[in-house]
UniProtKB/TrEMBL annotation:
One Pfam match: Lactamase_B
GO molecular function terms listed in the Swiss-Prot or TrEMBL record: metal ion binding; sulfur dioxygenase activity
PROSITE patterns: RHODANESE_3
Mitochondrion among keywords: no
The protein's name: MBL fold metallo-hydrolase
Keywords tagged on the record: Metal-binding
GO terms (BP aspect): glutathione metabolic process; hydrogen sulfide metabolic process
Domain Rhodanese intervals: 262-352, 366-455
Domain of life, source organism: Archaea
InterPro entries, A to Z: Metallo-B-lactamas, Mito_Persulfide_Diox, POD-like_MBL-fold, Rhodanese-like_dom, Rhodanese-like_dom_sf, RibonucZ/Hydroxyglut_hydro
Length: 467
């Protein structure tokens, strides 16, 4: 029997390929999908079936892309009308060699969510694995707010029923294979475990021991952020994403090209470190470090205007391009040839951001001209504490609250370490704020320098972030 988990870094997306007897099935494939064909070829198998556990909201699904070269059948939950594939219902079974995959309808995260119960009939009729999509994770369960606030209670009740009537009654030894790991936006607190089982989750996952009323109230009170790109993911994944065939080829642009393109609305993303960005950058660019691309590009980049990357040495840009493709940004167009050095060697204008260390901020914390802005997730702020007197706006919501930030003060922005702070500083600068300082080290450095974080209740600028 073939079983292999394919992880997409940073997005924390898990997909799977299983097979036996020369046949294979892929579950929740990503858009850059050649890896599944490579695995099947290595094992001497043909991919005959592709399952989507749900339409997904945080990445572009890859089933259409994978079906093109393999001819495999695409199967998904029947409660949603998709523009492709075939809807499946509770109890239907599909064979892949000696393997049997049974459909369990498990709505709650989305209305059409399904789970797949796998048995290896050559060995036993007992369940071996269950692919739970976004219904059950290691240490967590799926979010229930994405259908809209007016349906949140209904979706929470559905998820409770799906968990307790369909998934948890499975044998304790059943291996749980969720669609996401730690760090995904599809859960609130997913555990950092490669594998888990039904028995282990029943023993350790606190959400599963709650009564129905307690569970629903817990899900109703969750505060989770929804990146703007999620609406585009829903549309693409419901209708069927456009085929890309291969990763896009990036065009090399000169500094003069970049300047001309920016006049026409091109989106320039600086993927260097916060310190590099602070030391010098192209005016009007957005700072999103490489590893932060899939987490934050969806808040600030649109799907129409071309996207150009700025790096120092332009190494392994294909890896960065994959992040854009997985989120549907097919408008990724090029990069600055020669890196940022080419920009300043042409004598172009260089903009700088201020940087402070924790001792710098501590020395100036009582200065009335200093306005400290905390851009962390609100849950981190409440859990870990905050710098005395700081104000809060989540980094993804800055543009919605610009009028609440004083233009006549020094804005000291901070996050956990300094990376989201660099993004926030670049957004503020782009909107005309000229005295912006990024606290390098963030709250991690602040605590390491033995400065206090407080946890008492405080009214924040963004007290009720969209859920």
């Amino acid at each position: 029997m073939l079983f292999e988990k394919i992880k997409s870094d940073i997005l924390a997306h898990n997909s799977y390929i299983v097979g036996a007897g020369g046949e294979a099935a892929v579950i929740d494939p990503r858009r850059d999908c050649l890896i599944y064909a490579a695995v099947a070829e290595r094992e001497g198998m043909k991919i005959t079936k592709i399952f989507e556990t749900h339409k997904n909201e945080d990445y572009v699904i890859g089933s259409r892309e994978l079906a093109r070269p393999t001819g495999a059948e695409i199967l998904h939950g029947a409660r949603e009308e998709f523009g492709f594939g075939t809807g499946v219902h509770e109890g239907e079974t599909f064979t892949v060699g000696s393997l049997e995959l049974e459909i369990l309808e498990t709505p709650g995260h989305t209305i059409e969510s399904i789970s797949l119960l796998l048995r290896d009939r050559s060995v036993s009729g007992d369940p071996l694995m269950v692919f739970t999509g976004d219904a059950l994770f290691a240490g967590d369960v799926g979010r229930t707010d994405l259908a809209g606030e007016d349906k949140r209670r209904e979706m929470s009740e559905m998820l409770y029923a799906s968990l307790h009537q369909k998934i948890l009654p499975l044998p304790d030894s059943t291996i749980v294979c969720p669609a996401h790991g730690a760090g995904s936006v599809c859960g609130g607190n997913i555990g950092d475990r490669e594998y888990t089982t039904i028995g282990f989750e029943k023993a350790t996952n606190g959400l599963l021991s709650l009564s129905k009323e307690e569970f629903v109230e817990r899900k109703m009170s969750e505060r989770l952020y929804e990146p703007q790109y999620i609406a585009m993911m829903r549309k693409l994944n419901r209708e069927g994403p456009p085929l890309i065939y291969n990763l896009p080829h990036l065009k090399a642009y000169s500094p003069r090209d970049i300047r001309s393109l920016m006049d026409r609305g091109v989106q320039v993303v600086d993927i260097r470190s916060p310190t590099s960005f602070a030391g010098g950058h192209i005016p009007g660019t957005i700072s999103i470090w490489r590893e932060g691309l899939p987490l934050y590009m969806g808040y600030y980049l649109n799907y129409e205007d071309p996207i150009v990357l700025v790096d120092d040495f332009n190494l392994d840009l294909d890896h960065a391009v994959r992040h854009f493709v997985r989120l549907g940004y097919d408008n990724i167009a090029g990069y600055l040839a020669g890196g940022f050095a080419a920009w300043f060697k042409q004598g172009e204008i260089v903009e700088r951001s201020g940087t402070w260390s924790p001792p710098d901020l501590a020395e100036n914390l009582d200065d009335p001209s200093v306005w400290v802005l905390d851009v962390r997730n609100v849950n981190h702020r409440e859990r870990d504490g905050h710098i005395q007197g700081s104000h809060h706006i989540y980094v993804g919501h800055l543009e919605e609250h610009l009028e609440e930030i004083p233009e006549d003060k020094r804005i000291v922005v901070h996050c956990d370490a300094g990376y989201k702070g660099s993004l926030a500083a670049s957004i503020l600068e782009k909107h005309g704020f000229r005295n912006v300082i990024n606290l390098l080290g963030g709250t991690i450095g602040w605590r390491a320098a033995n400065y206090p974080l407080v946890k008492e209740e405080e009214r924040t600028v963004s007290a009720s972030p969209p859920l």
